[in-house]
Design goal:
Layout lengths: L2 H25 L7 E5 L5 H14 L4 E5 L8 H6 L6 E5 L5 H4 L2 H19 L6 E5 L1 H6 L5 H10 L5 E5 L5 H6 L2 E4 L20
Parallel strand pairs: 1-5, 1-6, 2-3, 2-4, 4-5
Amino acid sequence: MSDQQRNQRHTQRMQRKKELIDAGVARADKDKGLILINTGNGKGKSSAGFGVVARALGHGMTVAVVQFIKGSFQTGEENFFRRFPDEVEYHVMGEGFTWDTQNRERDIATAMVAWEKAEQLLSNPTIDLVLLDELNIALKMGYIPLDRVLAALRDKPEMQHVVITGRGAKDELVEIADTVTEMREIKHAYKAGIRAQKGVEL
């Protein structure tokens, strides 16, 4: 096959693809506040969530963040987004990973305080996007009642977007979500003895 034939075939394929994509875009004519979940054992769940936060800010939207587990160390995203106090309401409510605290009752109490703050944000129509970072972990550990979370998500303002991160997303949460992404680990620097690096994982 000559280069000219390849180029012609490529053009024909791309024309057909464009027609299909354009038709799909035309059918997607509804607006609503979305529930997005980033889950799975791979890295990047929170990073993707904070990418959505940055995107929302780029559109002049108001954002709130609640971090359920992280809190014993400061992260780059916290340092950055706290520079925008008028646009981002930022709440670090955790005390560290469960193996750090080693106190289930205290973990539950801390998680419930964080969830009560989240409920306030999820009922506030002036907040366009809420990021619930590591909520899945708190649910997986049984720190927060799942039915209470589901109720708040179902009752949130119609156009409010919610991003939920963390491993082990509950099936019931996946069911009501609009978009669910599973991060799969293929390779991790930690297993080669490399500590978490600032600007990449912290």
